[in-house]
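Anyone opening a protein record will find just a pair of labelled lines. With that in mind, the following record should read easily:
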Amino acid sequence: MPVRAHVAFLALCLALAGFSPAAEPGASPAAAVASAGELSSTASAVAATESLIDVKTLVAKAQTLDLASDFQGARKILGDAYSKGVRDVDFLEALAVEELKTGAPAEGFKRLDEARAAAGDKPELVLWAAVAASASGLDAEAARLLSKGLSTAGDEEEALYDLAEKFLRAGALSVSSALYRKINDVYPTDSQFDVFSYLHLAAYYHMTNRNNLAAGIMDRARHPIEYSDVEIMTPQEVDYFRAYFRGMAAIRGGDLDAGVAILSDAAAAFPAGLAAQGEVVHALDAAGKKDRADGVYSMVMRDLLGKIAASPEDHAAYNSRAFFGETAGRNLEGALEAVNMALAISPLRPEYLDTKTAILLDLGRFDEALVNQDRMIALISAPRWAEPILFDLAAWRRLDILEKLGKPMPASLRQLPEPATAK
């Protein structure tokens, strides 16, 4: 997938002005009092601004720890400030999120209630409350809050997309996917944000084993992606992903032959689609059809190793070899060596870090996988918008690693009950 140009909007304007001239000789006492009042007002404004900056700094520090998967540390920083009386709405939201992630959803719910009492039903507060309710086992209430939060969020497309990205970056894929669905409902055909939302949704349905839905999303996405003013992917790539999702749906639905045939055709039409070939090998191995699996594996590996031999400095070739090996589930140590070579040549490629994380996870090296994944997420957190699919997969994989390490996050971060389930 070609890497699209990230659009960056960043505007930070601070205006601090506080000058009041001394009263001129002969000025009245009233003028002097007015001047003193102006100074007092200015001082209060400066103090308020400094307080705001302090809260933002505090939240930023906590988010940095969260980015490094130190959720307890993030909660402690914010909890200490809470005990000292800090009650800023954004601060309360940040504290609630860390309480959720450290196994205290009831406490998080209380913080969100405090924030809503102060600021009203801001959509992000209501949507986080839905996550907290589901984490507390209150699924009907969670569905009600999710419906309310989506309604409160309005219909302005860019605002919806920004809100979805905020939840995605916080690891709440359940909420971000609901917001992407709303964008698709409101702007169904020709919107830039709608196109990106299609890709996020396809990834989400794939990760929740709803591959037929993912394929359907790619059906809807083909025309707007083909005619979009923003280069995202080619029609050939759209067709490949659509076929990939259909093949995976067939295999996971128990129809091995149909799934293998769909994936094989997809790989033939789009040779760069190594995931389809890797899944063919993996599915055939799982079904005990080793000879067929060996044939596919040998054919693809011969081509990949030939590209490395022809160009030993081609970091993409090393990553392709590693990615295929991981997807196929074969020779993982060799795959790890290959991706380490790719990273030695080009160390700041997030897709290479993602490949390495997947291999480390397969090898059971969970601590290393988490460190690597946190590094990758930090790397792709700088742009305003995450690369569609890449950030979703990264956030989902981190949840997997934390679960393997015995530090599971609330299931409600992955999936929430649909609003229709509310009583």
Observations:
- The chain has 19 helices and no strands.
- Residues 1-50 have pLDDT under 50 and may be disordered.
- The radius of gyration is 26 Å.
- Residues 29-67 form the longest helix (39 residues).
